[in-house]
Amino acid sequence: MRFTVLATFMALIAYNWFFIKVARARQQFGLKAPKITGDANFERIFRVQQNTAEQLVFFLPSLWLFGFYLSDQFAGLLGLCWTGARVLYAAEHYADAKKRGPGALVSWLIAFVLLMGGTLAALVT
After folding, report:
1. What would the pLDDT profile of 55-71 be if each residue is shown by its tens digit?
2. The whole model's pTM is what?
3. Enclosing domain of residue 31
């Protein structure tokens, strides 16, 4: 399961980078926790981190189902693509929240493929 592990690692590294960006943005825009509103630039950075946390709940189990029941190598590849799509989503969202669609859609589609593939493979095995 080394490819699934690698994809998990990369997804969590990206999430941690988004987390660090929020901490830095809090300092930059003078927003002390627990405040999460005020500056639109901060709110976009915060939403990327929060949305990625929400998506990890869907993505990680789907990745592991797929990797275990179908293909470790393909799960790893799709997982790395998911992380790339989340980075694209972040770049889009940081620039203009209205243009965040492509990265969000691609990452959701990848997670959905992982979920369906892993679940179907588990049911027929």
Report:
1. 999 999 999 999 999 99
2. 0.93
3. 2-123
